[in-house]
Amino acid sequence: MNGWILAATVVPAGGGTAALWGVTTGPMARRVVAQNLTTSVLCPTLLLLSQGYGRPAYVDLALLLALLGPVGTLVFARLLSDDPEVRQASAWGLTYAAAGLGAATVVALCVATGPGRAMVKLLVIGALLIGGNLVASRAMAGGFRGVRGG
Fold first, then answer.
1. pLDDT digits (tens, 9 = 90+) for 131-148
2. Sign of torsion over alpha carbons 102, 107, 111, 114
3. Per the domain annotation, does 150 fall within a domain?
């Protein structure tokens, strides 16, 4: 077991516990926020496992998850937009922690990978992961100012 695999087991332990608690308890708003957190934890885990096991296919899975995870959260936010409880759901502490985790993971992997196509792919995944997480969390917290319907 190397350090990458050890980090890949520690990351979902902390974030996965918070996401599991959010999904199993509380109202619908907490469950949707926990779904967004799950995406933000699983993507860095896949990146760490990719480096640990030397399997670039895991990076492609992380890319797919970084693309589709926030989209799923936005779909749920749109479908549940009539519920005032969901419109005010926010977890900015968890959102910033997940964004920091994604940024730290991507930076560490970029340093380990070195310059090249793999580094560009990691940077794209990091931008999608952090940007999607922040946009989805903002949509859950009441939408964007000046935008009609969300």
1. 998 888 877 766 555 555
2. positive
3. no
With contact defined as beta carbons under 8 Å apart, do 102 and 129 qualify? yes
- What residues make up the domain containing 77? 3-140
**Nearest alpha-carbon partner for 108 in 87, 86, 91, 126:** 126
Q: How many domains does the chain have?
A: 1
- Quick one: tokens of 136? 């989805």
Q: Alpha-carbon distance 50 to 6, whole Å?
A: 12
Q: Which amino acid is at 52?
A: G
Residue at 149 is within a domain = no
Asked whether residue 37 is domain-assigned, the answer is yes
pLDDT digits (tens, 9 = 90+) for 106-121: 999 999 999 999 999 9
As a whole number of Å, the end-to-end CA separation of the chain is 46
C-alpha closest to that of 31 among 75, 73, 94: 73
Burial of 118 (0-12, 13-18, 19+ CB in 10 A): middle
Judged against a pLDDT cut of 90, whether residue 33 lies above it is answered with: no
